[in-house]
Design brief:
Elements (H helix, E strand, L loop, with lengths): L15 H10 L10 H22 L5 H8 L3 H17 L1 H11 L1 H21 L3 H16 L2 H11 L5 H30 L1 H22 L27 H10 L1 H32 L4 H28 L4 H21 L7 H14 L4
Helix pairs in contact: 2-6, 2-7, 2-8, 2-9, 2-10, 4-7, 5-6, 6-7, 6-8, 6-10, 8-9, 9-10, 9-13, 12-13, 12-14, 13-15, 14-15
């Protein structure tokens, strides 16, 4: 009998430890981070975040319509954005504790329900107070998204990829800004208030279905786990009290520096995109709706480019971070001063473009 037709040798048994090591080396294997399953989990999570950004920034293209619908002035209109941001900020620590205790899948599901309820309430509100309460509910749901997606990235990808996943999450989230400025503003102008906001609210139910059917907290989690099951035993273990943890974190100089850098640099673009950009460009500068939406979109596109540029600079030259922040803050103040002091009723387009670029930079030096 020739060698080609010889009977096959029986397979050599592989010890259990060897099989475990082999599985651990395969990206995407059950119980191991990385691979297509990790990108699927992250993609579902980031879709929730994108939808939350759409809801968050939707008022930025509806400021004029909101003032007309609710019969309010500039002070009351600004209350929408202030309350929403305050709720978002105040929920960060509680949301972190909820993610630790119940996992990102359940927190994202709760966030989607709150986002949908808040946006539906805003769609059908005809008075200032119900609309304000709806934005507070929306801010609460919005707060549950980003932290949960970061936790998904930490559990589904190797630790060395966590910074990249966090940066990618922020970049993809800016798509929600583009949807608001390019799409939502046109739909609002053509379809009206209630159909526009009700439709965006109901999109949350579609994303919620994807979360319930396909998302898992970790590679080891069972598929379609019930949302109302008890918390994991590890989450119920005794923990250090919260206030001492906050005090210890605040004593760290880097924490305080990061807070004030984020506070200072994020303010101009956030205020412009979340509320005042469209009224300033249309009512103050006499630009058309399409031109105003285009300028707001440029802020988002340029901010994505600055994110890549500043990220490379900060990773290669860590010492440049603080001078970069000061340069961006001073530049923003100077350009805004020039815009506000410009003689005549309208600012030239070249200066508006400079303002757009500078405000895009404020969102990314941190």
């Amino acid at each position: 009998m020739s060698a080609d037709s010889a009977p096959p040798l029986p397979p050599t048994p592989i010890p259990e430890a060897g099989r475990a090591r082999h599985a651990a080396r395969r990206p995407g294997a059950a119980g191991t981070p990385g691979g297509r399953r990790a990108w699927l989990a992250w993609g579902i999570g980031v879709s929730v975040y994108v939808l939350a950004v759409v809801h968050r920034t939707s008022l930025g293209v509806a400021g004029i319509a909101a003032a007309t619908r609710f019969g309010i002035g500039a002070s009351a209109l600004s209350t929408f954005a202030i309350l929403q941001v305050l709720v978002y900020a105040g929920m960060q620590v509680p949301v972190g504790l909820l993610v630790d205790r119940f996992g990102p899948r359940r927190v994202l599901s709760c966030g989607l329900l709150l986002l949908t309820a808040g946006q539906l309430g805003f769609a059908f509100a005809t008075a200032f107070t119900p609309a304000l309460c709806s934005r507070a509910v929306l801010g609460c749901g919005d707060a549950m998204t980003f932290v949960s997606v970061l936790r998904l990235g930490a559990r589904w990808f190797p630790a060395r990829r966590n910074p990249f996943i966090a940066q990618l999450t922020g970049l993809v989230g800016t798509v929600g800004n583009l949807v608001s400025t390019l799409v939502l503003s046109q739909i609002l102008h053509s379809a009206g208030w209630t159909p526009t906001f009700a439709t965006t609210a109901l999109l949350g139910l579609l994303v919620l279905a994807a979360v319930l059917l396909f998302l898992r907290d970790t590679p080891d989690s069972p598929p379609r786990a019930p949302l109302l099951r008890a918390a994991e035993p590890a989450a119920l273990a005794p923990r250090r009290p919260l206030l001492p943890q906050i005090r210890d974190a605040w004593r760290e100089p880097g924490t305080r520096l990061g807070l004030w850098v984020h506070f200072t640099t994020a303010f101009p673009a956030s205020a412009f995109l979340l509320l005042w950009g469209m009224p300033f460009l249309m009512e103050g500068q006499g630009e058309s709706r399409a031109t105003a939406a285009g300028l707001l979109s440029l802020i988002i596109v340029f901010s994505m480019g600055f994110a890549l540029l500043f990220g490379q600079l900060n990773s290669r030259h860590p010492g440049v971070r603080t001078p970069l922040v000061f340069a961006v803050v001073v530049g923003t103040g100077g350009v805004w001063g020039l815009v506000l002091a410009w003689p005549g009723p309208r600012v030239p387009m070249w200066l508006l473009l400079v303002l757009v670029v500078v405000m895009a930079a404020t969102a990314r030096p941190r």
